Amino acid sequence: MDATLVIPGRKRAVGKPLHKRLRYLRKGRCLQCGWCCQKEDCKELVFVDGKYYCEKFHSKDRPSKCAPFPQAPPLLNPDCGYYFLDRWDNDRIVKLGKDL
pTM value? Predict the structure, then answer.
């Protein structure tokens, strides 16, 4: 029997049970705050006019490890442009540890 999830205001979802679906969906965008680059000690990070910039952020040579960060909450930097939707809890917004 298929698992059925009905959320008010949404189409009926039939398929994978909740425990097999990806729980957190990343949303938002990179604001180039430099926090994740500092954490990873990235060599492409430069500090200009009081702000961090990645020299290869918009380049085809951007390191592959950059794209998936961050993958799951909690975020340790409140200024990060990303947030997560908890798909198991009606798309509740999760960002920092206090939101978990």
Answer: 0.65
3-state secondary structure 70-88: CCCCCCCCCCCCEEEEECC
**pLDDT, tens digit, for every residue of 45-99?**
888 888 777 888 778 887 777 777 788 888 888 888 899 999 888 889 998 888 8
Strands 82-86 and 92-94, by their bridges, are: antiparallel
Instruction: Decide if 40 contacts 48 (C-beta within 8 A).
Output: no
CA-to-CA dists, residue 45 to 6, 15, 23, 51, 92, angstroms: 45, 43, 31, 10, 33
Could you state, in order of their start, the residue ranges of all structural domains in the chain?
Answer: 22-99
